[in-house]
From TrEMBL:
Protein name as it appears in the record: HIP1R protein
Annotated I/LWEQ domain residues: 7-248
Main location: cytoplasm
Coiled coil: 207-243
Chain residue ranges for the region called Disordered: 249-280
Signal peptide positions on this chain: none
Localization per Swiss-Prot or TrEMBL: Cytoplasm
GO molecular function: actin filament binding; clathrin adaptor activity; clathrin light chain binding; phosphatidylinositol-3,4-bisphosphate binding; phosphatidylinositol-3,5-bisphosphate binding
Length: 280
């Protein structure tokens, strides 16, 4: 008992209530996200037009489809949890079942929180993009996070579910649908970004030769600075992932499902081209 990780500051008998509260909280977060997207859609139609309106509508529509897919996923996951508890608790109460399987319950709570948090972050990023105060890349990252959180929720539910369970099959189908909708958000975001950038095409026709040369040199400097910054950020990302796995207990124990860990970013300059042989 002393060696068990104290990941939650609650009593075991409260775990059952915690699961229900977290799933209800996740459902509320998703419903709120759907309402906010509808409000953003109405605001975009009033305040934008042309290409920007088209881009905003396409992005928000894909976000709405993703929220609907997540809502169905959470509902199916809740049904599967009830099935697992009913088939596994025997003469025990629901609270006793959750307490007996506390590690599994804590994983379920963590996964549910991650899904709700991802949905909230996606809506906030979409809001900033529509208001032109955010970055398109934020939406892409949020979509990837939602796909990862969904996989976590399915894995947590799958641990104790019967292989022949219909609810498990439905949950896996919902997970695939969420991944597909998340990919649509990424695709609509990238195409929208390209459309906006094409609209704001750079025009250098009025520049003199000296001005063009100066702009060219300044742009080369920026490219070198960005390449150096990109390399540094890749190294930082690798270290963050190492720390994440260390905290999650994933550094010492390899994942059972065989999921590959992210490889560290390759350092530039390690592989050098062999020297060309000199002619006699």
């Amino acid at each position: 008992q002393e060696l068990r990780p104290k990941s939650l500051d609650i009593k075991q008998e409260e775990l059952g209530d915690m699961v229900e509260k977290e799933m209800a909280s996740t459902s509320e977060a998703i419903e709120d996200a759907v309402r906010r997207i509808e409000e953003m859609m109405s605001q975009a139609r009033n305040e934008s037009s042309g290409v920007k309106l088209e881009v905003n509508e396409r992005i928000l529509n894909s976000c709405t489809d993703l929220m609907k897919a997540i809502r169905l996923l959470v509902t199916t996951s809740t049904n599967l949890q009830k099935e697992i508890v009913e088939s596994g608790r025997g003469a025990a109460t629901t609270q006793e079942f959750y307490a007996k399987n506390s590690r599994w319950t804590e994983g379920l709570i963590s996964a549910s929180k991650a899904v709700g948090w991802g949905a909230t972050q996606l809506v906030e990023s979409a809001d900033r993009v529509v208001l032109h105060t955010g970055k398109y890349e934020e939406l892409i990252v949020c979509s990837h996070e939602i796909a990862a959180s969904t996989a976590q929720l399915v894995a947590a539910s799958k641990v104790k579910a019967e292989k022949s369970s219909r609810n498990l099959a439905r949950l896996q189908e919902c997970s695939r649908n969420v991944n597909e909708m998340a990919a649509n958000v990424v695709a609509s975001t990238k195409s929208g970004q390209e459309q906006i950038e094409e609209k704001d095409t750079m025009d250098f026709s009025g520049m003199s030769l000296i001005k063009l040369k100066k702009e060219e040199m300044e742009t080369q400097v920026k490219v070198l600075e960005l390449e150096k910054r990109l390399e540094g950020e890749r190294v930082r990302l690798g270290e963050l992932r190492k720390q994440h796995y260390a905290l999650a207990g994933g550094c010492e124990d390899a994942p059972e499902d065989g999921e590959a860990r992210p490889a560290p970013a390759p350092r530039r300059g390690i592989l050098k081209k062999p020297p060309i042989a000199q002619k006699p």
